[in-house]
Write a structure and sequence with these properties.
Largest sheet: none
CATH architecture of the domain at 8-101: Up-down Bundle
Number of strands: 0
Shape: elongated
CATH class of the domain at 8-101: Mainly Alpha
Radius of gyration: 22 Å
Structural class: mainly alpha
Mean pLDDT: 79
Amino acid sequence: MTGPGTRPTVERMRDEGFWNPLWDDLDRMDPAWTEQYMAAAMQPLESGSLTPREIQLLCIAVDASCLHMYAPGVRRHIRAALELGVEPEAILDVLKFATTVGIHSCNIGVPILVEEMERRAASGPVSPPESFLPRDRAADPQDRTLVDLRRHDSEERGDHDHEHDRADDLER
């Protein structure tokens, strides 16, 4: 299932600019599985039940969500939505809607925090370790920004989350 024309979904995605170059290695390692996965993932977009405008708005929401944050896809789908006549206000509303995914961090974390605080209160006063005490961040040269930490962690793991920015530059 690897010859020309035998992988219609992957080939169409490449031809139409929907292919993510980060998938190239997966495709080389298991082209049959990649074709099957992409065909299944594309089915809702190709079923005809959604208008092209709705598809672009959904793709913006997915690509912009805090769980995905794929800038080249956001750009591609915003351009396509605008070309289809979607109002910028609708796109902005979709982006606002996509931010609600992050509230689930509080939905999970706050009840656990309350439980832990109640547990600690029930066991009597506890002094935090010195490393948990607030410190003067401005005076600490070891303090890094979140971006520095993300880049550092990404490089240590060998992944390239910061590649999204480079791919975005290439797409312009």
